[in-house]
Request: fold
Amino acid sequence: MLRGRDGGADFALFTDLYILTMLQAYVRKGMAETAVFDFFIRRLPRRWNYVIACGIADVLHFVENAHFSEDALVYLSSLGHFSQEFLDYLAGFRFTGDIYALPEGSIAFPSEPLLEVVAPLPEAQLVETFLINQVHFQSLMASKAARVVRAAAGATVVDFGSRRAHGTDAAIKGARAFHVAGVAATSNVFAGRQYGLPVRGTMAHSYVQAHDDESEALRHFAALYPETVLLVDTYDTLAGVRKVVALAEEMGKDFAVRAIRLDSGDLGALAHAARRVLDDAGLHRVEIFASNSLEEYAIADLVRRGAPIDGYGVGTRMSVSSDAPTLDCAYKLVEYAGKGRMKLSAHKTSLPGRKQVYRQCERGAFARDVIALADEPSAGAPLLVPVMRNGARLPAGRDDVTAARERAHRHREFLPPRLHSLDEAQPPYEVALSEGLSALRDRLGAELAKGAGS
Amino acid sequence: MLRGRDGGADFALFTDLYILTMLQAYVRKGMAETAVFDFFIRRLPRRWNYVIACGIADVLHFVENAHFSEDALVYLSSLGHFSQEFLDYLAGFRFTGDIYALPEGSIAFPSEPLLEVVAPLPEAQLVETFLINQVHFQSLMASKAARVVRAAAGATVVDFGSRRAHGTDAAIKGARAFHVAGVAATSNVFAGRQYGLPVRGTMAHSYVQAHDDESEALRHFAALYPETVLLVDTYDTLAGVRKVVALAEEMGKDFAVRAIRLDSGDLGALAHAARRVLDDAGLHRVEIFASNSLEEYAIADLVRRGAPIDGYGVGTRMSVSSDAPTLDCAYKLVEYAGKGRMKLSAHKTSLPGRKQVYRQCERGAFARDVIALADEPSAGAPLLVPVMRNGARLPAGRDDVTAARERAHRHREFLPPRLHSLDEAQPPYEVALSEGLSALRDRLGAELAKGAGS
Reply:
């Protein structure tokens, strides 16, 4: 069975081949001293001002359970790259290290570790592909959804994205990430069950089309689901609204339809016109729900135009984050055998050493973050917390989607108002490096630049 | 265990809630006559000239196995929308219908059904969410990869996209779709095993960084993997290349390194410079492999500049199809109870009736497609083939990634040359409607327009 939560013997094979070839080299040479890897966002997408950390629970589940079955080892052996000695090592593989993370739902900024993995080098390396795959995607989804929720200015947002999400895992975990970011419900029943999320739905055009008569289709659905949402745009939107009005007159006090749904055309103009038709018939409490290629900018535009829309169904453009379908992020070695490590490649430098991130508040709002070395004191509240110790998940690393949703809500309340903008905030949020970190980076950079040329 | 292939009792819950509420309405009213649904692409992304159909094998597997476990029914019952009568119906649910499809790897154009589902209305409706989720995503990936492979002009393309793909399912099935489109290998070991794909990998910066000395890291890796690819840009790219040359001198005839990898900076300029360094040392047979934010346009530009690059590792931008992360597609009811159905919503009309697609060739190349009614004769080769009958998969519907890859290759050889362009072909490929289909559409459109206003 495909699960929203990945486990099972063979899932340790969800890795890039080079991870395993490097691992064999490490094992062969006995390079098993403690390594520290950071996962961080390098740069935000254009117009974004923050990300919401998400996906940590799935990473911890994977890390706790990653091991190699006999079948997996037979397959690896068939590739011709691996010695029996190394396959024996994999047969006994278990992650024994520590992980620190920003709790799910935390707001984060570029260069800050969202996760820090501290483990013997081969173990810290083995989890790389899955870790990036999940934290990148889920943080992307949560961050995109936070923008959509913000744009909706209090109106309900429902996830309709399952069909255009990139595969089943994206649909299921996307629904969870959207919920963390404040989306009210998902249409995906599997995700609803998996994570205990509210599930919601209306009706499809095919339902209306399967009937010979639109009015008959609406009547039938409202009889079965009195408090439903009726889709009115299969043929002609305002004619559809008038059919709902006729149905209300016909049903009298039994009419309890909660809303109509608009799914095509100029949603703002149609919402205004539909609202007038409904209000003229005294149907003030019938709400208007809108969908169709929506994202934060389209919704903000509808809000600005005063469109009388009470809820939004958001699909495709949220579920693939269409204007920013990836985050520029990395999982980088920052320390090995007690020595800071970094990379000098053009535009891809990393910050060395074990870290802590401190968040400083002023006048009741987040003012700046300081990325410091782990053992370096700093003002502010430390953000990275231990979520796994010696390969065992700690209470702070348990999967609690409700706590994550509350945290995301609370963090956004403390954001400086300019960061709520759908456009780039000026100035951007300040992320400073501590003295100790700056000094380590400068010293290592100079050493490496010298060594590289030699 | 998460599998690349989705199955299991509970996976029938991978559906939008409204599908189930509509189903209950159909079951209640006895609306179980034969329905026909088409999955088709409405419009191509900007600059794209065709799509490659993919994902059909996973849909057939889902359809064959979709059923509701006791646990799933308990969950559905808890939602409060469903009667015991309907839950009993779901307990016995099995798909009993027929499916027609373009075989995987086929080239397709807008408005053409990639799949046509013919089944009792509730059954045809139940598979909607999963069907769209998979065929949309996998066709998107195959189509994007076909552009990348074309741009590479014969150089090898390897999938490095697992870490930025949207979740695990996207990474695994993306690797398969890329292979269908001509990508040579994937880095994802799980996908390699699942589908029997070639797996490839090189080394990461962290490997170099974990050593105190770059030369030592390269020496160690080449000793363990004589025919490996060495990454040279961790600190200074050309200094890294010179270290490979020094290693070659040191190892003498034992030096068998296959290639170096460039992963940052101006890949074209660095490839030229690295080639000179290698050639000056007599290392003519050491190839150059390039990666870093590549997609079809960047690769085409490198090819145009004559960059001496033998292979490309393509990740992020292919695995999310970054410039076109979705296809505009739909799964629409086109016939119910023997009567054609369509929708008139603005910009979202559909073509009614059961269909066949005929492809006509002229002078050894595809010349035009005709979308006709299923029982309407036409010139050309029919493209839709039966892949499932009475709920059982037919031989044509078996999962054969090699056949799909060969079909995709063959179809592209028959494409008119202008369609290979990375820009919009002028004129676009001709897709005509048959007389019968046009007449049905016009007749139904007129009827509906009249009915909608009434």
